[in-house]
C-alpha cells in the first residue's frame, strides 16, 4: 500500500514541471500577442453615439462571429445576384430600419480576377448588410494588358466616388479583391482619429500582423485623411509597395494607424499566382518624400481616360485606360527628390 502511494506521488510530481512549462509557454505567447497588438495600436471601435437611437448601432444584433465562407469558384453571376436581391443597381445598399452611421465607398482595384470578384461580392454584400452600413461598391479596372498601376486606378476611383453627391461618402475603404472577411465584428467604419487598417490577420500569413507598418489589404480612410496623404502614389508600375508608400505618407501627415485585434480582423485570402513585381519598387519607395507632388492632386495632369462607368447589379464598374507614358509629367520625381531618411 505504502509503496503504491509513494509511487503515485512521485508520478504526479514528475508531471508537474511539464505542466508548469506548458502553462508558462501559453502565458508568454498570450502576453507577447497582447504586447504586439498594443504596439500595433489594435483595438475594437467604440460606439460613441449610443444615445442616438435612430442611428444604426455600431454592433447590431445581426452580426456573426464566425461566418461560413463559401469559397467555391464555379458560380455564375446570375447565381450570385440571385441571393442579393436587396442590393440596388450599382452595388448600392441603405438599411431601412435605422439611419446608417457613415456612407461608405468601397473601392476594389481589379484586373482579370472575375472569379475572385464573384467570391468577394457574394460575401461582402451580406457582411455589410449585417453591419447595417450604407455603402456603394466601386470596382475599378485597368483596361488592356499593360503594366498594372494600382495606385493610379485607386486615385481615379476615389475621384469618381467623391464626385457623387447622393450620397456624399464619409469613408473610403480600399479593398483587395482576394480578401474575404471572416468576422462581422470587424466593422467597416472610418475612425476620425486616424486611418484604420482592417486586415491585420490574413490566413495565408497565419493570422498575424507581419509588421507594424503593414497597411495593405483593406484600408479605411476619411476624405480628410486621404487628402492629407495626397492619396496614393501614381508611380508604382507593377505589383507591390504602393501600400508601404501610403504608410509613409500617413505617418508623415501625423497619423497613427489603428487596427482591430487579430481575432477580429481576420480574412481568408483567395489563392492566386503572384504578379510581376513593380520595377525599381525599392527605389520608388525610398523616395516617398515626394508625396505632395505625386498623388491625388496631380491626377488631373496625368494622361488617362475613363472608358466607361457602368452600373452592374452588384457594383459600379469604372474602366480606366492609359499607357506607361500616363505619368510622364511626374516621372522626373524619381530622380530629383533626395532620399528620405
Ligand atoms: C489581353 O490579353 C488577352 C490574353 O492574352 C487577350 O485575349 C486580350 O485581347 C488582350 N487585351 C487587349 C486589350 O489587348
Ligand atoms: C486605350 O488607349 C489606347 C492608347 O491611347 C488607345 O489606342 C485605345 O483605343 C484605348 N482603348 C479604349 C477602349 O479606350
From TrEMBL:
**Where mainly found?**
membrane
Q: Where is the Galactosyltransferase C-terminal domain?
A: 196-273
Q: Which Pfam families match?
A: Glyco_transf_7C, Glyco_transf_7N
Which organism encodes this protein? Adineta steineri
Q: Tell me its EC number(s), please.
A: 2.4.1.-
Q: Which keywords label this protein?
A: Glycoprotein, Glycosyltransferase, Membrane, Signal-anchor, Transferase, Transmembrane, Transmembrane helix
Name the family the entry cites.
Belongs to the glycosyltransferase 7 family.
Protein name as it appears in the record? Beta-1,4-galactosyltransferase
Q: Where in the cell is it found?
A: Membrane
Q: How does it sit in the membrane?
A: Single-pass type II membrane protein
Q: Could you provide one GO biological process annotation from this protein's UniProt record?
A: glycosphingolipid biosynthetic process
The record ties this protein, via InterPro entries, to: Galactosyl_T, Galactosyl_T_C, Galactosyl_T_N, Nucleotide-diphossugar_trans
State whether keyword Transmembrane applies. Answer: yes
- Any transmembrane segments, and where? 12-31
Q: One cellular component GO annotation, for this chain's record?
A: Golgi apparatus
Which GO MF terms does the UniProt record name? galactosyltransferase activity; N-acetyl-beta-glucosaminyl-derivative 4-beta-N-acetylgalactosaminyltransferase activity
Question: What job does this protein perform?
Answer: Catalyses the transfer of galactose onto proteins or lipids.
Identify the residues that the record assigns to the Galactosyltransferase N-terminal domain, covering every copy.
56-191
Q: Give the metabolic or biological pathway.
A: Protein modification; protein glycosylation
Amino acid at each position: 500500500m505504502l509503496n503504491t502511494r509513494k509511487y503515485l506521488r512521485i508520478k504526479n510530481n514528475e508531471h508537474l514541471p511539464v505542466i508548469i512549462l506548458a502553462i508558462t509557454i501559453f502565458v508568454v505567447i498570450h502576453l507577447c500577442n497582447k504586447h504586439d497588438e498594443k504596439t500595433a495600436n489594435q483595438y475594437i471601435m467604440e460606439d460613441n453615439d449610443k444615445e442616438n437611437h435612430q442611428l444604426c448601432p455600431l454592433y447590431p444584433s445581426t452580426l456573426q462571429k464566425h461566418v461560413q465562407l463559401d469559397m467555391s469558384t464555379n458560380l455564375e453571376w446570375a447565381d450570385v445576384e440571385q441571393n442579393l436581391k436587396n442590393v440596388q443597381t450599382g452595388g448600392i445598399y441603405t438599411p431601412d430600419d435605422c439611419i446608417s452611421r457613415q456612407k461608405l465607398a468601397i473601392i476594389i482595384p481589379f484586373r482579370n480576377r472575375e472569379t475572385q470578384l464573384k467570391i468577394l461580392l457574394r460575401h461582402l454584400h451580406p457582411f455589410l448588410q449585417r453591419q447595417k452600413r450604407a455603402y456603394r461598391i466601386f470596382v475599378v479596372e485597368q483596361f488592356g494588358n499593360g503594366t498594372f498601376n494600382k495606385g493610379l486606378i485607386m486615385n481615379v476611383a476615389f475621384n469618381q466616388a467623391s464626385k457623387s453627391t447622393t450620397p456624399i461618402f464619409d469613408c473610403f475603404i480600399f479593398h483587395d479583391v482576394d480578401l474575404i472577411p471572416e468576422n462581422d465584428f470587424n466593422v467597416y467604419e472610418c475612425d476620425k482619429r486616424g486611418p484604420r487598417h482592417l486586415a491585420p490577420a490574413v490566413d495565408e500569413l497565419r493570422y498575424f500582423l507581419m509588421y507594424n507598418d503593414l497597411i495593405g489589404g483593406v484600408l479605411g480612410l476619411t476624405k480628410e485623411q486621404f487628402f492629407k496623404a495626397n492619396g496614393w502614389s501614381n508611380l508604382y508600375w507593377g505589383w507591390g509597395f504602393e501600400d508601404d508608400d501610403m504608410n509613409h505618407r500617413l505617418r508623415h501627415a501625423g497619423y497613427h494607424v489603428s487596427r482591430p485585434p487579430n481575432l477580429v480582423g481576420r480574412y481568408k485570402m483567395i489563392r492566386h499566382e503572384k504578379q510581376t513585381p513593380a520595377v525599381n519598387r525599392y527605389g520608388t519607395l525610398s523616395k516617398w518624400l515626394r508625396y505632395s507632388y505625386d498623388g491625388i492632386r496631380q491626377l488631373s495632369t496625368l494622361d488617362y481616360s475613363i472608358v466607361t462607368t457602368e452600373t452592374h447589379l452588384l457594383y459600379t464598374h469604372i474602366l480606366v485606360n492609359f499607357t506607361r507614358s500616363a505619368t510622364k509629367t511626374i516621372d522626373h520625381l524619381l530622380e530629383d527628390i533626395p532620399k528620405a531618411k
